[in-house]
Amino acid sequence: MQGSKQTNHYYSGKFEKQLQEYPGLQSKMTPVPDTGEKTYQGSDKLVHKKALITGGDSGIGRAATIAYAREGADVAISYHPDEEQDAQEVKAIVEKEGCTCVLLPGDLREEGFAKHMVKSAANALGGLDLLVLNAGVQQYEFDIQNLTSEQLRDTFEVNVFSVVYAIQEALNYLGEGGSIILTSSIQGVKPSAHLVDYAMTKSCEISLTKSLAAQLGKKGIRINAVAPGPIWTALQICGGQPQDSIPEFGHNQPLQRAGQPAELASVYVLLASDEASYITGQVYGITGGAPIN
Ligand code: NAD
Ligand code: MG
Hints:
It is built from eight helices and seven strands; from the N terminus they run αβαβαβαβαβαβααβ. It has one domain: Rossmann fold, CATH 3.40.50.720. The chain is 34% helix and 12% strand. A seven-stranded parallel sheet has the order 3-2-1-4-5-6-7, sandwiched between helices. The longest helix has 22 residues, at 149-170. By secondary structure, it is an alpha/beta fold.
């Protein structure tokens, strides 16, 4: 049956099974995720803004980074040192727009890197207006009795602790009009059986968004979360899902396919821009149709 134009605009076929070691390279995926390189057109929504995007090398963070640069922002991206190849691609794309792209490799499991990353970004960019805390780790495990303390710690360190440390440091730089955006997940409100630890961390991010919106409102700093559904990215093929779930990944959504990172970029731009001046403490679902509440 033919879908609507929108449903067909992005890849809607089955995916080949494919496994990479975490954190993986999107440039080695089939198909390569669409992060908007060929499609995103800016319209000066973020001119003169300085942004740090974690996990900006690939997937959703890369789509946000490309969009921010095309909207006129200077950007810094952080990523795991094993992702240098993807990060270099992003740097080349951003610099083609005439914007600065600061590269900040490091492991967010290490205490200290999150604060160091924010300080380095602000120093290199000459300030900070936008903080997109998007880096995340997801490893599936069907049985809680097999959940290792190492996995539990890694997931919380990257998805929760580093987010708190980065915000603590960023508040030394963000001023009135500053915007923080967290990439949470539909898992934060509708957890799956095989993603116990991951889903807990994504709930933490939603809670943090709401409590900090209340705390930071008086400073004129906004904070919002994006809650994606199934998006075709490296995270999913590096242990995020069992291989048997890869071929039909996303096909159970109302739009019957996985989303591509490029389809999220406009929301990251909106939440960063001054057009969102009265939007804070909100969770924005981009799920292909599954309700987030
Ligand atoms: P991705 O693999 O392309 O990006 C995740 C990034 O996190 C990596 O590129 C890496 O740079 C960073 N990262 C992970 N572990 C790190 C570590 N130890 N140190 C430093 N950086 C580290 O995948 P993505 O799907 O674009 O993920 C971005 C965010 O989206 C994550 O927070 C993820 O939880 C969230 N999310 C993804 C989906 C999906 O279906 N893909 C759905 C909901 C939420
Ligand atoms: Mg990556």
